[in-house]
Amino acid sequence: xxxxxxxxxxxxxxxxxxxxxxxxxxxxxxxxxxxxxxxxxxxxxxxxxxxxxxxxxxxxxxxxxxxxxxxxxxxxxxxxxxxxxxxxxxxxxxxxxxxxxxxxxxxxxxxxxxxxxxx
Length: 119
Hints:
Shape: globular
Radius of gyration: 14 Å
Oligomer: single chain
Largest sheet: 7 strands, mixed
Order of helices and strands: EEEEEEEEEEE
Low-confidence stretches: none
Mean pLDDT: 95
């Protein structure tokens, strides 16, 4: 069984920073990838923001490069934490951010955290 927990959503002023955390634990089998998506209010689409593989390769999409970075911390006991560092936040970054993890025979979505950028 695999578990996933997100945290870090908050209200922040434009230009501010937030770090979102996604902790995946349990029977995590490699290879796998942990990704962050976001869904703007009123939209049905989930837009990929960044991904981190079990090999340690992480990337964010071009639209947020220079502001967002993705990193990971592989803890013991079958736990991995993937972080989305968001700097210089803009009003357009306001959305629900969801973490998604997928291995060969398993996948799991988080329930999401809300990032609200407003002055």
